Amino acid sequence: MEARRSWASDLPFERRPTPYNSDETTYPMRWARASVAYARTAVLLDAVLAAGVTFAVLSWSTGVTLATAAWAVVGAVAFVSFVAGAKGYQRSALGDGPREFQSVLRGTLHLAGALMVLGFLLKAPVPRSLVVVGVPVLAVLSWWVRHVHRRRLHRQRSQGQAMMRTVVVGDSASALRVTRNLGGATHHGYQIEGMCLPEAEPGGDVGGVPVLGAIADVVQVVADRAAEVVIVTGSSLSGDALRRLSWALGRAGAHLVVAPDIVEVASPRLTVRPTAGLSLLQVEIEAPRERLLAKSVMDRTISVLALLVAAPVILGAAAAVVLTSKGGAFYRQTRVGVDGRTFTMWKLRTMVADADRVRETLLDASDRDGLMFKMHADPRITPVGRFLRRFSIDELPQLLNIIKGDMSLVGPRPPLLEEVQAYPDAVRRRLRVRPGLTGLWQVSGRADLAWEESVRLDLRYVDNWSVTMDLMILWKTGRAVLSGSGAY
């Protein structure tokens, strides 16, 4: 048997070509080209959008002139520059996670600030319509275009394209957990080639995942598989050994990613603090007050504006409810809010008048597992109510609950008192934040999700919420509502 070449040695390392067929050998280049193309397309789209919005706003207010065209060019250059300054075109931030959208938001805010400085402080002839109309429109359009652009990339990844070949290193339990999580979420772009385990021989498998070798073989496996990413998990590698591996992978042309054993915790709760030669990972326990204030201001501002717009829809739906079935237009129910406090939640009535009494006779017919009661063909729902539920129109009166402070725009759905009384201890953490009009599991399948999965998504939101996450969930809520999937 050929002796193993350990990455811990000081021998020079040369990357060898993968022994697979020609299609496979070009795979890493396909990923590199795809990521560069994605970044270039993002720059082009932002420039075209900024130029188009600037030209349209100024043409509407001042007419088409040479100055209008010049402002359009300036707007394109300025917007792309501000987004680039917010790291919106870094390949590591594109196609996955919220950083891409956060960069666009920061770029538009910086652009608005720069226009106001030019106009109000330096007395430059900056049209106010650019700040009042142009920047908000540009932010919305840029978010939408980025979303469409990202969806195209995710479709490619679901077909096995534009992926990063990945080797997972660690003990079998930790490596298998990471492998299964990443394998079930191809949109993140990791194609798992296999695992390297302590003192393992290649040729076997763990849970259906190939074992490519021992930890000492990692760099050679990277060369043989033309891998681009190595993910280290568990406690098999740490300290100087992990440091030496990073050096060896640098020579091999692969990236090192460390997956800590803390689960369902993500930015902005995690902060790396370099201290005394150590990289300390600090986990935020409670959300800072300024973030809570920002969420509260956003909730009430958007809810007031949405209620003004939705008032005719609510009144029309209320009239339809009263005219087509016995009972009042609105339905009030006691729900459990933040920290276990109860409140009265408002909805448009979608069921027959004695629905609560009939519910006890239908509990055994629930289509949901766990504590939540749902039925695809609930006999209590009226024809008008079914339409209102499909497009979530019945939930619009809860905008009043948000304005009062009982609820939030985004959060776990408010549970019934009897559901809370049956909660296990871990599930009670759902009550640490205000319940929401929409939430993470609502945009991930709504009532079609299993109880355990909906709880997992709710807890993920409670642990990791941010204003940016709320904006992204609100963005996805529109698509979920229009599609009507999982609504019954």
Detail the topology: elements first, then pairings.
Layout: H1 22-25, H2 27-62, H3 66-85, H4 99-121, H5 128-158, E1 164-169, H6 172-183, E2 190-197, E3 205-206, E4 209-214, H7 218-225, E5 229-233, H8 239-252, E6 255-259, E7 270-275, E8 278-283, H9 289-324, E9 330-336, E10 342-348, H10 355-362, H11 383-390, H12 398-404, E11 408-410, H13 417-421, E12 436-438, H14 451-464, H15 467-483
Parallel strand pairs: 1-2, 1-5, 2-4, 5-6, 11-12
Antiparallel strand pairs: 3-4, 7-8, 9-10
Brief digest:
The protein is α/β, with parallel strands linked by helices and 488 residues long. The chain has helices spanning 22-25, 27-62, 66-85, 99-121, 128-158, 172-183, 218-225, 239-252, 289-324, 355-362, 383-390, 398-404, 417-421, 451-464, 467-483, and strands spanning 164-169, 190-197, 205-206, 209-214, 229-233, 255-259, 270-275, 278-283, 330-336, 342-348, 408-410, 436-438.
